[in-house]
Amino acid sequence: MSNTFGKLFRLTSFGESHGVAVGGVIDGCPAGISVDTEFIQNELNRRRPGQSVITTSRKESDKVEFLSGVFQGKTTGQPIGFLVRNEQQRSADYEHLKEVYRPSHADFTYQMKYGIRDYRGGGRSSARETIARVVAGAFAKLVLKQMGVKIVAYTSQIGDVRLSEKQAFAEHDIESNMVRCPDASVAEKMIRLIEQVRSEGDSIGGIVSCVIRNVPMGIGEPVFDKLSARLAYAMLSINAAKGFDYGIGFSGVANKGSEQNDAFVINEDDCNITTLTNNSGGIQGGLSNGADIRFRVLFKPTATISKKQSTVTITGENVELEARGRHDPCVVPRAVPIVEAMAAMTVLDLILIAQKDSLNER
Amino acid sequence: MSNTFGKLFRLTSFGESHGVAVGGVIDGCPAGISVDTEFIQNELNRRRPGQSVITTSRKESDKVEFLSGVFQGKTTGQPIGFLVRNEQQRSADYEHLKEVYRPSHADFTYQMKYGIRDYRGGGRSSARETIARVVAGAFAKLVLKQMGVKIVAYTSQIGDVRLSEKQAFAEHDIESNMVRCPDASVAEKMIRLIEQVRSEGDSIGGIVSCVIRNVPMGIGEPVFDKLSARLAYAMLSINAAKGFDYGIGFSGVANKGSEQNDAFVINEDDCNITTLTNNSGGIQGGLSNGADIRFRVLFKPTATISKKQSTVTITGENVELEARGRHDPCVVPRAVPIVEAMAAMTVLDLILIAQKDSLNER
Amino acid sequence: MSNTFGKLFRLTSFGESHGVAVGGVIDGCPAGISVDTEFIQNELNRRRPGQSVITTSRKESDKVEFLSGVFQGKTTGQPIGFLVRNEQQRSADYEHLKEVYRPSHADFTYQMKYGIRDYRGGGRSSARETIARVVAGAFAKLVLKQMGVKIVAYTSQIGDVRLSEKQAFAEHDIESNMVRCPDASVAEKMIRLIEQVRSEGDSIGGIVSCVIRNVPMGIGEPVFDKLSARLAYAMLSINAAKGFDYGIGFSGVANKGSEQNDAFVINEDDCNITTLTNNSGGIQGGLSNGADIRFRVLFKPTATISKKQSTVTITGENVELEARGRHDPCVVPRAVPIVEAMAAMTVLDLILIAQKDSLNER
Amino acid sequence: MSNTFGKLFRLTSFGESHGVAVGGVIDGCPAGISVDTEFIQNELNRRRPGQSVITTSRKESDKVEFLSGVFQGKTTGQPIGFLVRNEQQRSADYEHLKEVYRPSHADFTYQMKYGIRDYRGGGRSSARETIARVVAGAFAKLVLKQMGVKIVAYTSQIGDVRLSEKQAFAEHDIESNMVRCPDASVAEKMIRLIEQVRSEGDSIGGIVSCVIRNVPMGIGEPVFDKLSARLAYAMLSINAAKGFDYGIGFSGVANKGSEQNDAFVINEDDCNITTLTNNSGGIQGGLSNGADIRFRVLFKPTATISKKQSTVTITGENVELEARGRHDPCVVPRAVPIVEAMAAMTVLDLILIAQKDSLNER
After folding, report:
1. Which of D244, D283, D345 to mutate to test the interface with C (most CBs of C within 10 A)?
2. Which residues contact B137 (CB under 8 A, 6 or more apart)?
3. Which fold has domain C4-247+282-359?
């Protein structure tokens, strides 16, 4: 249940790590959008395993096949079925996991809930599921692009190595290094940290920051579907996500109201109303105010590590576990396109819903 | 739109700060539950303005009237309509706000979205709306209580005054002081800080921590309605909420996997599987694992302050604003019962949904 | 559960026949609509009991009170809470029903489902619940009116007395008689039939026909939310409804395709595409085609009759039942405004959803 | 939008008549169900084109491929992705339809709604979409079977040839003839009628009747998700469906209450409460009462006929149209398994929702 995300722009996803395929159905994509397959595949490539030395060595080409909803190169408004076949299903790598619950994984909870689980590579709980999110997010981005909305995420922290919030940077530098941090020297430190924890058979977490520009004002629906609430929901639904804040967030906890409030001012160029600061992260009263939407997502260290760990078997015996298989020492760099995808779907969904407001009598 | 929360246990809320009444409809409450009206009113009293010297001086009795769904003292499974009439509608206090957008409030975004707004006391965007949440949350708590599920929230940080995570405390001490912090000496410091910012005409934010005990295993629905995602959504829908994390959260960002993973062990007493640590906050793979659910919610400083602020009018002129009206210098103490209410509704909703799993063939 | 109707324009209803009040919350009504309270009350009066000699003698003024969502005479886009207090709660009339299941009523099924029921006047299963539908439908009509959409329902059959499908009539004649049939002589026969069955302590059913004009083309959502499917759902959710068809419907069952297909033609006046006939009832492929939407709803004879009937008690004994209380010998005339209300909400909801299509790239 | 059906047991479908594939995702299927692939394929075969001389001559093997959600022969509770590749895409047959709107088809309304359409064989509006419904319905049937719930549909009318309601018949005779009418002599007349209209290049409609046995009491959710409302919605969402009734339905329109009410009686065998008659069709107050659920679905004559018809082109010129391609002269026999599938999904969904009632305190 609940493998569907969104209300008017919807992704329904399916697929296990070592099953036949992962894929999904995108429902509610506006009609007439040119389907830039190269762009979509490129988004998938940004998420793909094996793309650099700091990611898992599992090799998958992750080629997407479209099954419906596209006609003569354009969307038709009908559901877009798609799939990516799993290639490197080295399931034998996981046969030894049949009988054991890996610490901080979903093995135990899935077994308790369903009484059965596909134990190969985490089955449905594998991050391989996010392929569907990236494909659907790519469609959302194609629609948003036409409205001028742009979404950029980047790695702002790995372990204790962090990018200063204040620091200016060029967005085109994000993809220039394998950790997806726009500052070359910070990126360098992050990569060294990841390599070090890997050499120890260990893992590390971090933070992805995201900016969304040019979102129309008034996006979000009071009182429960606040833009902030919908973003938090979207982000915490990503594997390994453990926290979320927007605007100045947790780092402003000691601020006073007089410091954190964003004063309104008249923009002298276009006479529009804007704010002097953006501690609100572009969201006030749960609705977009026209400023950049800014939020952060915390990811925990990868649960799979090569170091020996204590755990129990499904029959209730204490054992020592040493992970084989292939895994990322840090999920953060590959999480960057996933955060963007979830943000794109959330914002597009709320923009579509807000079209109803065009019926307001003014 | 989107004034309905939940899927099987649902609250639909209505009402403005200075309208006739605030209230709601609870749909999907199980039948046959004894309606402890004293408990429900007490929950409302914990949220009520004017309950202590550190909250707003607006005085409201906030007496709830039930309109349906209860027969001979018990729920019937039918929708429970309820309302709380607004008494102290000193709307004249707000007449001067008709023409101005208060900084970091919803005035501007509501006007942009709807082209009209009830400017009296924030109208629909007022935290007075949370009355409906507290009433519905009280019903959810009554149902959860029968299952042994218990929810406790408390103030863990105000400004830079924080309760140590490690510190043991007695839950019954939470309500013993007006800031709702279980440690008397920390509470004392928090209260002093709030009084100080108030004397400056300013405001301050903080953090509410929450623990949910005895949640059955396997609650939450992969892959989008993870328990963590649904809690994040619920919490970020509360007025002034700006962040969320669960388990070790942001404070564990520098941990390695080997430090953060929760080793499974056999509980020698009952032979059940449990974990040695609870860095996961009771949630693994998005599902409850039987351990305590632990999460935190960040609240920003109240946007309404008495200090003079720069802003603009609805016709686009720069003005100085000095708040009159009555307001809280810090929303955190009154947010405690609201966090509990949202947690109660979220968990009960997911428990009701998980009843379908009882049809699993084992 | 499921006391909410609609997706973007939503009614959540509450209330029992003999409880404190019936009412609801309308969520998603566009902002800026002038609230014509006289019109709304008049819609309620068309549904009200005791309005003519062929309806129940229960007297209720059914005055609606608005609690929120309206400011300075206009909708604000926020939820509209409303209630109608129950006045004539002669619950003693129903005390004898505490122990007995009335034939073809909901007493038995509610008891089986919930283990408890408010037995006074049918409780939640009473048609008194439809008050909320009529109020919400009146708001939907106010919005639709501005778009030029018009909804008219009328009684087309009572027992075996039927209005010929072919017969032309003037819509303003519908409300000129108490059975709401636009043909005076047919209406006369219908009224005589109703009076006769009442004198026998019996009841009778019939059919309400409905026409919706000026619905924009392309309303409805493939493949499950076809306009026809949504209308069928809405109509069958009304108490006592037992059937639905649209366009030529059941009466065309013996037609061949060549007879039933609606040929497209160019309207010479405006060069628009239209159809020569309208056997499709304005719906093709589940979407509106611009022609009049036409459908019918079948209502069964009122289950409550004065004639003696065999039934059983809740403890499982055979008894004879003679209804006291007050009841309609035929629900059809009072169902006319309810059918209109459900049609109005359905069409407005789908029009709001179709606003998303304005983002289609053409 | 709205290619998802159901709330807890959900089908999301995709695919066009002449695209790559049709398929879907089933979400919420209980875990641990043995997947009887032969049964599922057989259900598809009952729907398949070319199965007899009275259906279209299009030949498709309609082999279903499962992509996820099944592990070691059992469902895992995770989404079940599946697809059926289109084989006989003789799209050239449809090239001449690019420029023309076929009467009583969805060509015109899809073009108006989306500004683009896949004109090959009706694209998304083709009944080929129902493949996904039959697959998901087969899963629902497998689950229902374990609860003892059984669903049987059959052809009860073709044109003016009808099976008497009163007539007893053996269910195993339904599949013994190609029109799926359980009475051999009536079936014979129906087949002759279909062959005759086909020889005329014409088409004919009819009625499918359906019985659901052993549905637990109290299934359905007041007040909008009545079992009757949900069934009506499900049935009217099927291509070519134009009407629905349940129980005695339209044929009882002239009945009085005393004739139509179902008297409760004590079943002497098991002391359970049952009804003497079943004019209610197993549904009272919108909830199942334990008796057989009985309803009927009206289907119009196939819109595609070989006879010459007047229509217009997309550029607004009057033309004559003669269908080529392959089509059914009557959709009713192939609609039988589709009606069953939609009924199975609807009932299972409502049974899963009703699991929440197990939390009622009695």
Report:
1. D244
2. B43, B337, B338, B340, B341, B342, B343, B344, B345
3. Chorismate synthase, AroC fold (3.60.150)
